[in-house]
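During the second half of the funding period, the structural biology subgroup turned its attention to how the target accommodates small molecules. The most pressing case was 2,5-dihydroxybenzoic acid, which had performed well in the primary screen but for which no bound structure existed. We therefore specified the complex as follows and requested a full 3D prediction, including the ligand pose.
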Amino acid sequence: MNRPVDARLDRARYYERIGEHKLTPLWELMSALVPESPRPACVPHLWRYRDIRSPLLESGTLITAREAVRRVLILENPGLPGSSAITQSLYAGLQLILPGEVAPSHRHTQTALRLIVEGEGAYTAVDGERVTMHAGDFILTPSWTWHDHGNPGDEPVVWLDGLDIPLVRFFDCGFAENYPAETQPVTRPEGDALARFGANLLPVDFKPTHGASPVFAYPFARSQEALVRLAAGGPPDACHGYKMQFVNPTTGGPAMPTMGAWIQRLPQGFAGARCRNTDGTVVHVIEGHGSVEIGTARFVFVPKDTFVIPSWQPWRLAADEDVYLFSYSDRPVQEALRIWREERLA
Ligand code: GTQ
């Protein structure tokens, strides 16, 4: 038998030799490759809108929406530097569009969602229909659909962009192209998709064309009314308060195949139970003051702040007043792969 020192030396030399053949020994990496539980590089973080609003508006003096194509400040997770990612699989950014500007039409395999943060009078066009954006509205841009943004109003408009950019990068399946004109033609009146698909009705003989919801804009006013009414029907969930998923009404499944999106109401005084789940989640505060504990971190939040909960870190929510949260994650992908987990903690 070799002495341990010799064994270590022999192994080190061996690793060097096999390295020349592009081989590495699994036994040195076993617990990293097959961990007992998730070890996300992603860390908890909160972006205070109070701190980032002014640099965001300043970007409007440095570059036009036309030149930038999308004038966005990326919310990059401090644990994932250089990745442009807020979680391992997801991207988040704050997009600014000034009065009179157009963000030119393009399409890509990445799916996008928007949550309107502030300002009135801008629109997003998706597949021939424009929708006017209001604070708190949730809008989606399915994979490979033409989309452009414009602001014919008279104030700056800001929204949170959520995209599955890191996920698509992981799969190496990113494609994109520009529309031949700056804006796509309007072929349907505003409100057409919501009337056609968002009234518990579907067109006779409807056949789905893509995996995402044909309702591409979910007004906050509607979701809020539902969430308020829910309180009369029973107590809030111990962890989530009143939490509802944005769905594709033609399937009952998530509004987008790669990103789940939710809106929830925490009634004033809510002090939630601890919970953890494997989908790293981006949370945006639409209304209300409250706080969140994530692992050993604790953040106080106010409207328009955005925070991120990494995979499998215990979290707990509390509300000082009625709070409305928007959130998104890759849960539909994990569920499709049968690897999603949630645990409610004491
Ligand atoms: O609006 O199409 O934040 O393509 C990043 C990439 C927004 C968009 C982003 C994009 C978009």
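Two results from this model are relevant to the next phase. The chain has two domains: 3-30, 45-344. The chain has a mean pLDDT of 97.
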